[in-house]
Amino acid sequence: MNVTSQETYETKDGLFAQVESTNHEQIVFCNDNATGLKAIIAIHNTVLGPGLGGTRMWNYATEAEALNDVLRLSRGMTYKAAISGLNLGGAKAVIIGDAKKDKSEALMRKFGRFIENLNGKYITAEDVGTTTKDMEYVKMSTDSVAGLPESMGGGGDPSPVTAYGTYIGMKASAKKAYGSDSLKGKQIAIQGIGKVGMHLLELITKEDGIATVSDINEGSLKHAVAEYGATVVSGDDIYGLDVDIFAPCALGAILNTKNINALNCDIIAGAANNQLAIEEKHGVMIKEKGLLYAPDFLINAGGLINVYSEVIGYNRENAMRDTENIYDTTLNIFNLADEENIHTQKAATLIAQKRIDDILNVQSTY
Ligand code: NAD
Ligand 1 centre from 187 Cα, in Å? Predict the structure, then answer.
């Protein structure tokens, strides 16, 4: 789950000015009075393939907030797919409304009709506020949907693969920082032990890493203590812990000035999306503090790799194997960041953008 963050994106006056500044290809506003559907599909870039990104249902305070969120998230998907070597572009959708009250089969089927009208340019999947069941309804209107249950030939819950990729990225970070990628004896703080964080905790403890966790869900904390012997801290105490690795696996935009100042670790490597509150400012701040930051959109790409596998013919083993490429890519990014003296998120974005530009050049010569 992610909170929307106005901080992460510069907002411009005027719809086209905003879309132009983020370089989006197409924005689709979907309205249906009968079902109450109000959705925005943002297709950021389709140079590498159809734009794939989940549908988020959220009770946005304003329509501007919904638009801001979908623009920010779809751009992130472009870079996540590009850096992961997938033949996918970036897109995302948001449905404005309360997922508990406003969602219905009819609404999801109608939403599927809008996706179908895009002729394969956008492929949806589940996200915050939507479930695999909702994707089954969407599937009744279009084949441009992934993230289906295993019973329907889909990949099921992508979280274990996301956790595995995060673990691989964490090991690559340890290799860079300590010369060995072993997590044995490493002190690791995990913020958020939900679907991804709990799997990550399992992988870390299997390797004899020592975990401290925080969460707002008492049941999850009890499970982490009983099953994995984790130590628990509450609230913001997680930031100031004297640990080797901090793994944000709950909310976005938590790497802000206050929290970065509090951090007492060598490495930041976690699964949460959009961890840097203000990308450039906080990317630089982390670098200047001497911390090694594993870019979130790279190391949490396991879920997308799993969903992509579904698009091309699902195979969990292949998805896990492809996820292991995160190790080398993470090290390449660290090396580029060193060579260019730039922060690691910037290095990751440059590598992703270069792949898109290279393919665009090839396409323009057909
Ligand atoms: P989740 O909702 O299952 O888990 C999030 C956990 O964070 C919950 O247990 C929640 O109680 C906890 N939490 C919420 N606020 C907190 C706080 N203030 N302090 C500590 N804990 C708090 O979500 P998830 O699927 O595990 O995803 C975790 C993060 O990873 C999200 O940012 C998500 O966008 C990102 N992500 C997930 C996937 C995936 O495959 N699930 C893929 C890519 C990125």
Answer: 21
215, 221, 256, 320, best to mutate for ligand 1 pocket (most atoms within 8 Å of CB): 215
Percentage of residues in the chain having pLDDT higher than 70: 96
- pLDDT at position 22 is 86
Q: Which amino acid is at 222?
A: K
User: Which among 164, 194, 170, 200 is positioned nearest to 183, based on CA atoms?
Assistant: 170
Q: Do domains 15-77+88-152 and 159-301 have the same CATH topology?
A: yes
| pLDDT of 128 | 87
Residue 22 to residue 24: CA distance in whole angstroms: 6
Map out the domains of the chain as residue ranges: 15-77+88-152, 159-301
Beta bridge partners of 28: 41
Structure tokens at 158: 């992508």
Going from the Cα of 97 to the center of ligand 1, the distance in angstroms, rounded, reads 20
Residues lining ligand 1, judged by CB closer than 6 Å?
A: 1-2, 158-159, 162, 191-197, 214-217, 220, 249-252, 271-273, 300, 303
Nearest CA, atom 25, ligand 1 = 195
Q: Please report the pLDDT score of residue 12 as a whole number.
A: 58
Ranges of residues in the chain with a pLDDT under 50 are: 1-10
User: What is the predicted pLDDT for the residue at 11?
Assistant: 55
**Which atom belonging to ligand 1 lies closest to the Cα atom of 250?**
7
Distance 58 CA to ligand 1 centre (A): 15
Beta strand segments in 238-342, E: 245-248, 267-268, 292-293
What is the Å distance from ligand 1's center to 16 Cα?
33
Tokens of 63: 């329509």
Three-state secondary-structure class, residue 122: strand
Contacts (Cβ under 8 Å, ≥6 apart) of 40? 27, 28, 29, 30, 66, 67, 70, 93, 94, 96
Give the global pTM: 0.92
Active site residue 171: no
- Distance (Å, rounded) from C-alpha 180 to C-alpha 182? 6
List the CATH code of the domain at 159-301. 3.40.50.720
Among residues 205, 293, 196, the alpha carbon closest in space to that of 254 is found at 293
CATH class of 15-77+88-152: alpha beta
Helical (H) or strand (E) element with 277: none
